[in-house]
Amino acid sequence: MSFSGKTVLITGASAGFGAATAKLFSESGAKLVLGDISAEGLGEGISGDFVTLVGDVRDPAYSKELVKLSIDTFGSLDIAINNAGIVHSFAKIPDLTEAESRKVIDVNLLGVFWALQAQLPVMEAQFAETGEGCAVVNLASVAGLGGASWLSIYGASKHGVVGLTRAAALEYARKGIRVNAICPSFAATAMAGEAVDDPEVESHMTRGVPMRRLATVNEVVQAILWAADPANSFTTGQNIAIDGGLGAL
Ligand SMILES: NC(=O)c1ccc[n+]([C@@H]2O[C@H](COP(=O)([O-])OP(=O)(O)OC[C@H]3O[C@@H](n4cnc5c(N)ncnc54)[C@H](O)[C@@H]3O)[C@@H](O)[C@H]2O)c1
After folding, report:
1. How far apart are CA 185 and CA 112, in angstroms?
2. Range of the domain at 124
3. How far apart are CA 176 and CA 79, in angstroms?
4. Could you tell me if 26 and 6 are in contact, meaning their C-beta atoms sit under 8 angstroms apart?
5. Atom 24 of ligand 1, nearest CA residue
6. Which of 38, 37, 35, 158 is nearest to 88 (CA)?
7. Ramachandran angles phi, psi of 113, nearest 5°
8. Helix (H), strand (E) at residue 241
9. How far apart, in whole angstroms, are the C-alpha atoms of residue 159 and residue 145?
10. What is the pLDDT along the chain (249 residues), one digit of tens a residue?
């Protein structure tokens, strides 16, 4: 895949999928706008053109600033990867606190909504002017495709991202913007906690996954780039599971 000359905005780019996605896009020729609430690791290991902006996706103004930074710096916004997200501790519904529950919805669901509000009009205007299509890839989860016990409000936030992805794809199907979501099962980032280093925890956490393992970061990142690739010009509104066979059960 070549993303030569494309401008790619990535949220949650300091760690995990976001950082690895940034690296692969950069190696494929893209210019990057990288955002995260944490400055630590942001832009690390990227050799091509990039700019960074630290901020919180819960703030709608931050999403607008990231888009403006892309236009002001590189003159375009071709691809957006709405990846920033958090998970809550495993807990039954009555045991989740109000603060934790609201935060998960604010970051995971409203964060993607504010991002879409900022990105879509700019991409639409760009398509009208240049005829070049744009792509948005949201990070949902298999917890957005089916029920996830002990992860209720996280799963609800990701079901919301799946819904936003479908709605945005429909609204912009004839306006040059494809919108898809990637839905991983547990993968080897900080979010998977001890499962990354402890085979016993990994085995417990992935007992429902036919491949019986975590996804690697690269397995998820490859799917993100695939969904963003202009070659996939007829793929939109899809919520693509990267799940070791879970969805086949
Ligand atoms: N790792 C998994 O098992 C898994 C599975 C399914 C879906 N996902 C989703 O993939 C996405 C990336 O997760 P990851 O595993 O790379 O997690 P991660 O914790 O490794 O990285 C998430 C990044 O988002 C940033 N972030 C968190 N809150 C933010 C905020 N309010 N504003 C801006 N940035 C913020 C963090 O600082 C961090 O750099 C998330 O949306 C997550 O829900 C992860």
Report:
1. 19
2. 7-240
3. 12
4. no
5. 12
6. 158
7. -65, -45
8. strand 239-242
9. 6
10. 899 999 999 999 999 999 999 999 999 999 999 999 999 999 999 999 999 999 999 999 999 999 999 999 999 999 999 999 999 999 999 999 999 999 999 999 999 999 999 999 999 999 999 999 999 999 999 999 999 999 999 999 999 999 999 999 999 999 999 999 999 999 999 988 888 999 998 999 999 999 999 999 999 999 999 999 999 999 999 999 999 999 999
Contact residues of ligand 1, CB 6 A cut-off = 11-12, 14-18, 36-38, 56-58, 83-86, 107, 139, 141, 184, 186-187, 189-192
In a domain, 27, yes or no: yes
Structure tokens at 224: 């993100």
Which of 25, 113, 154, 186 is an active site residue? 154
Residue 247 in domain: no
E strands, 23-154, are 31-36, 50-54, 79-82, 134-139
Catalytic residue status for 62:
no
Residue 245 lies in a domain: no
Establish if 249 belongs to a structural domain: no
Find the CATH number of the domain harbouring 222: 3.40.50.720
Neighbours of 181 (CB within 10 A): 30
DSSP category for residue 110: I
Amino acid at 96: L
Q: Measured from the CA of 87, which atom of ligand 1 is nearest? A: 43
Residue 118 in contact with residue 59, Cβ under 8 Å?
no
Total count of domains within the chain: 1
CA-based R_g, the chain, Å? 17
Residues facing residue 77 across a β-bridge: none
